[in-house]
Design a protein that fits this description.
Layout (H helix, E strand, L loop, with lengths): L7 E5 L3 H12 L3 E6 L8 H9 L3 E4 L12 E4 L8 H8 L4 E3 H6 L6 E5 L4 H14 L4 E5 L17 E5 L2 H4 L8 H4 L10 E4 L13 H9 L10 E5 L3 H6 L6 E5 L11 H13 L4 H10 L8 E6 L2 E5 L6 H10 L4 E6 L11 H7 E7 L3 H8 L5 E3 L3 H11 L5 E4 L12 H14 L2
Parallel strand pairs: 1-2, 1-4, 2-3, 4-5, 6-8, 6-9, 7-8, 9-10, 10-11, 13-17, 14-15, 14-17, 15-16
Antiparallel strand pairs: 12-13
Length: about 425
């Protein structure tokens, strides 16, 4: 096991995951320090105070090579790519580099169920966690759902399973079996007991060069699995079918009838039932959880009905495919609010569905012009300076029987801290309407 007692570990990124990494390094008796490109005034005051109170050495406003002096390891938050200059410096200085998930895994003491995919991850990991808990198994939901993995390793709790939602950003940094750290057994490669790829569609092309690179990041989930582990794949995903023969783990396919396990009903249920069967959980437990499950916040969440108009919060929608799914779920005319930071994905495949389902569209954020240019020929599109104006204009236009849908199809970081804040502000604005 990786022993960093009294060793200096430099953490990159002062966001949620980076701060969790600092706490983990302290729990394992290491000496954390933290660097972030943002100036100190952009870091929340309570985070700065916590770092100061713990005596953490920090660097804000940019990374410097000198800050790495004396480091025994560099650990990256998920938002920091391995192409960053600080990673290059670390390699030149022979400082080992890990991502947050891999680092936390060194100190976890329970098997991992890891779920990735382009859409549907949050719903599925929540269902899996609830099924395990209903079956009397202690399960900890964490990862890309707002609960950093690092906060729940060496935390004094006894878990039966960790259930992780993982993005391509978190997976691309996983150490390969041939990495010197793994080969020398100084560290163990991330190895889920059950690894799941739900589906695959265009996403994160602002980070990945192309779809092949994006899928390769997802596929790294399986690289350290062994014969006694399980790889769960969507039978409807051609890329997964083509590469399934490469896997060492026992391969199981779920059949969703479509390449999107976030659709209400069978697709979600199919993958959850398959995982539960692998774990020998009684079908009655699964039925109970599925019947009671009301969905997750910010995913097709009913905010309110006002004057016959339904307001839906789908802030977690950050891809064109998730926007497609959201539109397919709503009856009647839809007034759609979308936009944010462009992830370099193509929206044009949605034109026909938008023409059929959308009454009008209000767009915000950096992707406004792209969205307007894509959809203006099939539906009225208005550019708004902020979310409040978009909601107010949608309210003014909406008639009884309409749905006002926030489904951004874009990242949130141009205007909001994250999709949760975007959704919370949308709900606040909607609740203030009269």
């Amino acid at each position: 096991m990786l022993d960093l007692t009294d060793k200096t570990v430099t953490v990159v990124g002062a966001g949620r995951s980076g701060l969790a990494l600092v706490r983990l390094v302290r729990r394992i008796k290491g000496e954390p320090r933290l660097t972030d490109r943002r100036p100190a005034e952009d870091i929340p005051d309570h985070d700065l105070s916590a770092l100061h109170e713990q005596g953490i050495v920090t660097e804000f406003g940019g990374h410097t090579r000198d800050f790495l002096d004396g480091s025994h390891m560099l650990v990256l938050s998920p938002g920091v790519p391995f192409t960053s200059e600080i990673v290059q410096w670390a390699r030149e200085m022979s400082v080992p580099v890990m991502g947050e998930i891999e680092f936390a895994y060194q100190f976890c003491q329970a098997p991992v169920i890891a779920v990735t995919g382009s859409n549907g991850k949050t719903t599925v990991v929540n269902l899996i966690t609830r099924v395990l808990q209903e079956a009397g198994i202690s399960a900890r939901l964490c990862g890309n759902v707002g609960y950093p993995f690092s906060d729940y390793c060496r935390d004094g709790q006894d878990y039966g399973y960790y259930v992780l939602e993982l993005s391509s950003f978190q997976l691309e940094s996983l150490l390969s079996p041939g990495d010197p750290l793994v080969r020398s057994q100084a560290a163990r490669g991330f190895r889920p007991k059950i690894g799941v790829i739900l589906n695959f569609s265009e996403n994160h092309l602002d980070r990945h060069a192309d779809l092949d690179e994006y899928f390769a990041a997802k596929w790294r989930l399986f690289q350290n699995q062994r014969e006694e582990d399980y790889a769960v794949l969507n039978e409807g995903c051609a890329r997964s079918r083509e590469r399934a023969g490469e896997l060492k783990a026992r391969t199981r396919f779920f059949s969703a009838g479509q390449d999107d396990p976030e659709r209400a009903g069978n697709p979600n249920h199919a993958v959850v039932r398959l995982i539960a069967s692998i774990l020998n959980i009684h079908p009655g437990v699964i039925d109970s959880v599925l019947e009671a499950f009301e969905g997750v916040e910010h995913r097709m969440e009913l905010v309110r009905s006002l004057h016959g108009v339904t307001y839906i919060n789908d802030s977690k929608s950050t891809t064109a495919e998730s926007g497609r799914w959201a539109l397919s779920q709503l009856p009647g005319p839809v007034i759609m609010i979308c936009g944010g930071r462009d992830k370099n994905i193509e929206f044009s495949p949605l034109r026909e569905l938008v023409r059929l389902r959308v009454k009008s569209m209000y767009v915000i954020g950096e992707a406004s012009d792209k969205l307007r240019d894509t959809f203006a020929q099939v539906v009225p599109v208005s550019v708004c300076p902020d979310l409040r104006q978009a909601v107010n204009r949608a309210r003014d236009e909406a008639a009884a029987g309409d749905s006002v849908l926030l489904s951004p199809m874009c990242a949130s970081f141009d205007m909001f801290a994250n999709f949760e804040q975007r959704g919370a502000i949308y709900k606040q604005i909607v609740m203030e309407l009269s």
